[in-house]
Amino acid sequence: MENVTDRTHEIERGATAPLVPPQSLSAPLREMARLVRAKPFEPHPLFRNGHAQTVLAALRLPRYAELRRDEPGDWESRLLEVEPGARVLVKCRWQEERRAAPTLLLLHGLEGSSESLYVRGTARKAFGAGFNVVRMNMRTCGGTEHLTPTLYHSGMSSDIHHVFRELARGERLPRVFLAGYSMSGNMVLRLAGDYGAEAPPELAGVCAVSPSLDLAACAVAIERRANRLYQWSFMRSLRRRLRRKRRLHPELYDTRGLRHVRTIRHFDERFTAPHGGYRDADDYYERSSSLPVIHRIRVPTLVLHAEDDPIVPPEAFRDRAFEDNPHVLLVLTPRGGHTAFIARAAEGEDRRWAENRVVDFCRLLCRCGLADAGQEK
Predict the structure, then answer these.
(1) Cβ neighbours for 38, distance < 8 A, ≥ 6 positions apart
(2) CATH number for the segment(s) 2-214+294-373
(3) Above pLDDT 90, what percent of the chain?
(4) Which one of 8, 185, 209, 252 is separated from 35 by 20 to 30 angstroms, measured CA to CA?
(5) Pair 337, 281: CB distance under 8 Å
(6) Which secondary structure element, helix H or strand E, spans residue 339, and what is its range?
């Protein structure tokens, strides 16, 4: 193992910060760390702070039209059962020789879907790099409320496991990568940690962008005055979703007083926790956060996070679990916002820095031969 440190990249005059914090890394992750240092994140000069980055990345136009125009070929829609009475919608795009190609399973964040811009953008890049691509909707997301009576939440990493198992065993795909953003970033890390040393051999690697490692801390952060816009947006969407669920299952969901539920924590306390089998919101946050299991991860893993992320606080990323685990490469950037990372123009790639690094990571593992082995021994 080699200790990798980079405290020299200057992000702005008078300010330096570690791009790759001090970590003892395995050989392939050392190579990825070198690649990141060679292609560091430098924010768009007009959108430097975390809020500007986050809002810009969420704007649908003109990127939505661009992604539709630049995606030739058809996506195959499939419904997969993740537990009795519960199905999820996945959208698949296959290479001509699908079993000879690596596969990237992509997941969205809170109140997102397989149509989220960062999912579609990463999917386009990955397919162009020779990967099969599967875009997964969490339960009830992407217009699928009718496919399950349940809600979705951050503790449903077992759903990802069932979809992964269908790809690995049902489709007999030998090399499958997982990549999650925000909420699902936490979920794929949780799944990898729960697997521990018993990870399936088909699991080739894991990527998490702006993952909500500590759900309790995120619930506090979203209530800050500066984050009112994000909380309002999330809550409006969550209330609408719950009303749709009540129309489908009036016997399960009591929406009286729903308009007075105005915070994520209140929503989790009243709906997510009891419907998910948790004692209360605190129990849900504790049992679903990935931070406590980072030390158990044994598959090559990349974590990308910005210290100015307004929604996911950076403190959890300073936990010693990252420094002590050679299988997890943590890349912290001073800027980048939440699942944004809109970069200064660079030769040979677009401005979506995190999407590019996710695909670089998967390609590197394939090139190193780790993907063939499924996990590092």
Answers:
(1) none
(2) 3.40.50.1820
(3) 84
(4) 185
(5) no
(6) none
